[in-house]
Each structure stands twice: as C-alpha cells, then as structure tokens.
C-alpha cells in the first residue's frame, strides 16, 4: 500500500471511520469471489461431484437440494467473520504477528472463493450478481455494528 493511501487510512482509523485492514480484507474476499465466478462451471461441477460422492444413496433431486442448501449456508457463514473486522485489537494482533497475516490473507481469499462458488451454484446464469450482493451484505453488517459510532 502506498504511503499517502496508508496515511489517509490511518487518519480515518483514528476517527473510527475505517481500519486500513478493512479495505485489504474486502479486496481479498472480492478477488477470491471473482476467481470462483470466473471459473464457475468448474467450481459448480466440482461441488456437484463432491456432493454426489458424499451422498451417493440420495436421489439426484435430494443431492441438488443439499448442494443449494450448503451454498446458501456458505454465503451466510462466510459473512460472519465480517464482524471481526470491527475489532481493532484483532487487527493490531494480526499486524504484530506477521506469520498470521499470511494465513489471514489466504483464509480471506478462500472465503471469497467459497462465496463465489456458492453464488455460481445458486445463480448459475447470473453468478456475477454475487459480486453486487456480497459487498451489500458485508456493508450492511458493518453499518449495523458501527452505527453506534456515527453522529
């Protein structure tokens, strides 16, 4: 991150407007989601294969129902860590322990990839709508949590 951008984000952080990690976390999630959506045919067929192996005795309709339910659960569960972004102590801890930073970045990308795969399953022809819906869900969650700090 360039020095001027880092200074602006640090100033916003002092004003409790945004933490520098929030933007990088969001971009990592979005890049993982974009990757999965770009590979939507492969990711969706891979997920179907896994469900077919795990639930071999179920009917095709039953497996499709499990797949769609799992995809919806992945989206909801993938948004829960958004609440952790509002904890400055957690971000400071990660900044002070550089080894965790790589793991956190990787996990955020994987979370985005899983969300993109889920959108590819739920909206096969319009998975790109997930790129609009995911930020909306994230920002609605953050706004609700941070509203106590507003004017």
Give a short account of the largest sheet: none
How many separate structural domains?
Answer: 1
Element order: H for helix, E for strand = HHHHHHH
Separation, N- and C-terminal Cα atoms = 29 Å
In short:
This protein has 151 residues and is mainly alpha-helical. It contains 7 helices and no strands. Helix 2 (20-38) packs across helix 6, helix 3 packs across helix 4 and helix 6 crosses helix 7.
Kindly describe this structure.
With 151 residues, the protein is mainly alpha-helical. The chain has one domain. 78% of the residues lie in helices and 0% in strands. It has helices spanning 3-14, 20-38, 40-54, 60-79, 88-96, 98-122, 129-146. α2 packs antiparallel against α7 and α6 crosses α7 (129-146).
Structural topology:
Layout: H1 3-14, H2 20-38, H3 40-54, H4 60-79, H5 88-96, H6 98-122, H7 129-146
Keywords:
7 helices, mainly alpha, elongated, 151 residues, single chain
């Amino acid at each position: 991150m360039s020095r001027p951008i880092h200074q602006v984000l640090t100033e916003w952080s002092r004003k409790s407007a945004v933490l520098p990690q929030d933007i990088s976390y969001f971009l990592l999630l979005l890049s993982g989601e974009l990757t999965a959506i770009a590979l939507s045919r492969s990711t969706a067929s891979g997920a179907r294969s896994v469900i077919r192996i795990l639930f071999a005795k179920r009917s095709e309709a039953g497996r499709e129902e499990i797949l769609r339910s799992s995809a919806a659960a992945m989206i909801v569960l993938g948004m829960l860590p958004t609440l952790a972004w509002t904890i400055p102590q957690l971000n400071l801890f990660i900044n002070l322990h550089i080894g965790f930073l790589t793991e956190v970045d990787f996990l955020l990308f994987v979370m985005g990839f899983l969300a993109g795969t889920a959108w590819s399953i739920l909206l096969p022809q319009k998975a790109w709508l997930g790129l609009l819906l995911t930020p909306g869900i994230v920002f609605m969650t953050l706004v609700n949590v941070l509203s106590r700090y507003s004017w």
